[in-house]
């Protein structure tokens, strides 16, 4: 599969998630077979005004390429400026993704994210200005619409194609649904039938069979997995195996815990022990979910600030399965 001039190894992608798809997690997902990984969403104003925290979000590593950087904002001039002045010169970035799907209140209150689905004229202008200056493929992520009385995702998809967007990711919920209820995969199918650019389906892929069913039902060109990858980077390889007729092998409890330890060491090497250990608390809870006698371990992990201590507890937990 290609997005613009970027060739991808497969069509099973990691979806962007704020606070989750950082450099460490993206590297692990890439190692586990993800055809494309996408950064946490980055504020265009944060880049423009040189916010120090934003710089961290833009870290990439050759191991994870091809990599898409997702940006958000509602000022066309600032969006175009940061693409032209900052992202274009970056040879380690392959794709620029624009977020018009984030439902978070702190994002939409500023007119960003899925709020742009309420202002199609402004949305078009942003797409036009960014595509005009970008020397990399530009993609877009949307939802079905703002709410069930304002479902205009197909209209925005057509606009995106007209303005030169190279691929489109559709999260099959409205903004007011956030992540509740069931994703409407039939809407992804409608979008796919309305445009000729690649359409990437997103929403409610938690098991390998879900990914295969989304392909079959929607005829989408690729799928993007978000929450289903949390504590579960194997899902990419498992979906690919299922689609290619290979055996679907579940990771053993020991493999899961050792991946968690690998993740711990990787994130601490990138962000430092203090930040890394704190961020690994939520990841550890995701990794251990459903494993025998894991609640006590998860509760203990949330009290730890030391990498060696966290690793020791996890290694002791592996012993329960030996």
UniProtKB/TrEMBL annotation:
Matching InterPro entries: DUS-like_FMN-bd, DUS_fam, DusB-like, tRNA_hU_synthase_CS
Entry keywords, A to Z: Flavoprotein, FMN, NADP, Oxidoreductase, tRNA processing
UniProt entry tagged with the keyword Repressor: no
Record-stated family: Belongs to the dus family.
Pfam families in alphabetical order: Dus
Family annotation (NCBIfam families): nifR3_yhdG
Protein name in UniProt: tRNA-dihydrouridine synthase
GO molecular function term, any single one: oxidoreductase activity
Keyword set includes NADP: yes
Residue ranges of every copy of the DUS-like FMN-binding domain listed in the record: 14-312
Role this protein plays: Catalyzes the synthesis of 5,6-dihydrouridine (D), a modified base found in the D-loop of most tRNAs, via the reduction of the C5-C6 double bond in target uridines.
